[in-house]
Design a protein that fits this description.
Keywords: DNA-binding. The protein has 100 residues and is mainly alpha-helical. It has four helices and two strands; from the N terminus they run ααββαα. The chain is extended, with a radius of gyration of 18 Å.
Length: 100
């Protein structure tokens, strides 16, 4: 739970509450790590996987509808900007991981 809390930038207790709610809804499962019984693993359930699939389709359709409102040149500017932002975010994350 510590690693998840760190990735989400929330407390361990906050991560536990979020995971407990997702377990109650059937979206994830908590399993014991096969090699280290002190470690728990959070695994997406089939119901959670189906939900992710539905959300991805809805997001793709919405993004497509938004991009249709832009001319091709502006779409290219948006895509280039998003790629630059994604790259910067990855560099920051790698830097934070390297600081540990």
């Amino acid at each position: 739970m510590n690693e998840l809390a760190k990735q989400l930038n929330i407390t361990r207790g906050g991560a536990t509450r979020v995971i407990d709610k997702l377990i109650d809804k059937g979206y994830v499962l908590r399993k014991t790590h096969p090699e280290d019984g002190r470690v728990c693993c959070i695994v997406l359930s089939s119901q959670g996987s189906e939900l992710i699939d539905r959300i991805e389709v809805e997001v793709a359709l919405r993004n497509e509808n938004i991009l249709k409102k832009l001319d091709p040149a502006m779409c290219q500017v948006v895509m280039t900007s998003l790629q630059a932002l994604n790259s910067a975010m990855q560099q920051v994350q790698l830097g934070e991981e390297g600081d540990e």
